[in-house]
Specification:
Layout lengths: L7 E3 L2 E3 L6 E5 L6 E6 L3 H19 L3 H17 L1 H12 L3 H21 L6 E4 L5 E9 L3 E4 L7 H13 L3 E4 L5 H13 L7 E3 L5 H10 L5 E5 L2 H12 L4 E5 L4 E5 L5 H13 L9 E7 H16 L19 H16 L3 E4 L14 E4 L16 E7 L2 H9 L3 E2 L1 E5 L3 H10 L4 E4 L14 E2 L2 E2 L12 E9 L2
Parallel strand pairs: 7-8, 7-10, 8-9, 10-11, 12-13, 12-18, 13-16, 15-16, 18-19
Antiparallel strand pairs: 1-2, 3-4, 5-6, 6-22, 11-21, 14-15, 17-20
Helix pairs in contact: 1-7, 2-4, 2-5, 2-6, 3-4, 3-6, 4-5, 9-10
Length: about 475
């Protein structure tokens, strides 16, 4: 941990907070403090804004190939330092090292993907229908951006936003989650090493989010907000963006349905459930929350899932053989405990798990609940923990209606061997992404995002860079 930066990164320099404040970073497996990081305040936010605004014009005029090569170099450095970054991530947020290494690869791929997209920003030209003018359509960077990332994927959520911003020619202020600032600071150091000019990226960890973020959004110089986090916070940020009409991308909460029809291959369905539920200990917006299983196969599915979940090893993410690390903090674990207790009080059957272990750390066991009452709180709450709640259904129309009966619409999972049903139900699900006979949808080459209160815009894929670009139309008279 001694080589990891712990200061703010502003204008290409490592600096302490103006008022000297620091915030502690805890290891959720032990509760011990592993680092103290500079805690940015309003003055630091202004300095970061000045740096980003000051660097914007020069960065926008930088050749696309130069921006591309910086991203490519950063990709290679991340891959070379996989083990170091994985240990850092495990220390500050708890996921097992195997998962952390997977996230490093996932995070790096966003830089490789957008290094390739940086040189493919194009426009168009043509004569307008009335024949009087030629239209020249070009694309240009939106301008300085505020990027706000969550704690659950601290490296990948940073690269998923930073990559397209760099490729498009935008400067940035990154505010990482206070629980996991170290991964973002390490990423800033890598980008500086890769040749990113001073001021293009500024990183301001803070425990004072309102004091730092709101003045930036209301001040008129930041022209873009990209936020990943809860729907509740997203609504507040949208309101703050309204005053100066800041362009927004919002990747918000989820409440994913996982639908298993009677003709599903149960081996595939259980494998998919393990991924969709247990990736990142269930602390993912894409996590399957509501398992709708056809009545004819519900008992068998529940038995198999409970057997698989019960075999997982819980413990510190650095320990060999561990499958499930701690939840992020005591508050996060308490929420899971309360949701499970409410479901059990309403008659849910605990097939496995359901009891908090004694000892240090924020651990909670993989849990499967059957016969869950649809009125249980976990049916309309993002669980963010290793809990699978099983409900039964009888017919297609019923399960589609129940799957869509939520204000969220990020992702849905569907297991069936019937092609017609697969296409028909996928089209009826009110979600931005569907996993058909698979529990994993995230990929840097695919557009990630949802509908309804799960967000605005898309990240990743060929459209990911569009969020950081504006169109300009130039009319030229035909002579």
């Amino acid at each position: 941990m001694t080589d990891t930066p712990t200061q703010l990164f502003i204008g290409g320099a490592w600096v302490d907070a103006a008022d000297g404040a620091t915030l502690p970073v805890d290891d959720p497996a032990t509760g011990e403090i592993i680092a103290h990081v500079a805690d940015a305040g309003p003055k630091d936010a202004r300095l970061a804004e000045d740096a980003a605004v000051g660097a914007q014009d020069g960065w926008a005029r930088t050749a696309p190939r130069a921006r591309s090569e910086i991203l490519r170099r950063a990709y290679e450095i991340i891959i070379d330092r996989t083990d170091e970054l994985a240990h850092l991530m495990t220390a500050e947020m708890g996921k097992p090292l195997a998962e952390a290494r997977g996230e490093v690869a996932y995070a790096a791929e966003f830089f490789r993907w957008f290094s390739e997209e940086a040189v493919r920003i194009d426009g168009s030209a043509g004569i307008l229908p009335d024949g009087r003018n030629r239209m020249l359509l070009s694309r240009r960077p939106v301008g300085p951006c505020l990027l706000i990332t969550p704690w659950n994927f601290p490296l990948a959520m940073g690269t998923r936003k930073i990559g397209p911003a760099i490729a498009a020619g935008c400067t940035m202020i990154l505010k990482p989650a206070p629980q996991t600032p170290l991964s973002s600071l390490a990423l800033a150091a890598i980008l500086k090493e890769a040749g990113l000019p001073d001021g293009v990226l500024n990183v301001v960890p803070t425990s004072r989010a309102g004091e730092v973020g709101e003045p930036l959004l209301r001040g008129g110089r930041v022209r873009k907000l990209s936020f990943t986090g809860s729907t509740q916070v997203g609504r507040l940020l949208l309101a703050q963006c309204a005053d100066t009409v800041v362009r927004t991308s919002m990747e918000l909460g989820g409440n994913a349905p996982f639908v298993v029809f009677e003709d599903a291959d149960l081996d595939k369905a259980v494998d998919g459930a393990m991924v969709a539920k247990m990736r990142n200990m269930g602390e993912a917006c894409t996590a399957a929350n509501r398992f709708f299983v056809h009545r004819s196969v519900a008992e068998e599915f529940g038995r198999r899932l409970a057997e698989r979940m019960g075999a997982l090893v819980v413990g510190p993410g650095t320990r060999d053989g561990v499958d499930v690390g701690p939840l992020i903090d005591v508050k996060g674990r308490a929420k899971v405990e309360e949701l499970v207790a409410d479901a059990v009080e309403r008659g849910a059957q605990v097939l496995v798990g359901g009891r908090t272990p004694q000892g240090p750390g924020c651990f909670y066991p993989p849990t499967v609940l059957a016969d869950v009452d649809p009125e249980s709180r976990l049916m309309d709450t993002e669980i963010f923990g290793p809990v699978a709640a099983i409900l039964t259904f009888e017919d297609e129309d019923e399960v589609v209606r129940r799957a869509n009966d939520t204000p969220w619409g990020l992702v849905g999972y569907l297991f069936t061997e019937g092609l017609d049903r697969a296409l028909r139900v996928s089209e009826r699900l009110e979600v931005g992404m569907v996993g058909l006979n698979t529990g994993l949808v995230s990929n840097p080459a695919a557009p990630f995002g949802g509908v309804k209160q799960s967000g605005l815009g898309r990240e990743g894929g060929r459209v990911g860079i569009d969020e950081f670009l504006e169109y300009q139309y130039l009319a030229v008279p035909v002579q």
